[in-house]
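Shipment paperwork, digital attachment
Item: protein structure file
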Amino acid sequence: MKVAICGGGSVGTTIARDLNTSGHEVLVLEQDPDLVERRRRELDVTWIAADACEVASLDAAGLATVDVVVAATGDDEDNLVISLLAKQEFAVPRVVARVNNSKNQWLFNEGWGVDISVSTPQLITAIVEEAVSVGSLVRLLQFEGGAKHLVEVTLAPESPAVGNAISTLGIPREAAIVAIVRDDRLVAPRPETALQSGDEVLVLVSVEAEPDVRRELVGA
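Attachment content:
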């Protein structure tokens, strides 16, 4: 897989290092030439000193040939511009954008070319909630510009889903149970799988279907 990362700061560099270690072809665009020279000595990927908010720079970098663009700068406005250019000008199949200020989360949608947005503060909040909440639906990640979410529910004893097979639940077609964590073990969800109290249920769900999923797994 070929990945272009826009932003050579600590976040972008860490992503580039991990992807490179996993065997992916990585190029990083960073507008600070001095930072690019330093990073080149630290990490053996393709480094390009360029402004990723300019169409000409992205074209010269070969953005039309990449599979994924990661807009990972420390500026939300730049990340939105990069995402929009990547999707509209270069038809990049998958655009992932970093959200620095959670108040701007609502902007990171398909209208700006964003397929997946990642907000570190929001993600940390979700992880904290997931760790302490039982019987509540917690959003973990956002996909397709906000149209779909990965949510988690730790089933309380009084959950209407407890003791019932997945196939008997009224889970809407716009949602899918993708994993169950039970006693620190991953359980592959099958139609006949009966849910138990304490199960951590991960569901990929559209915004519209979320209330139905909450009703089936939480009961409220």
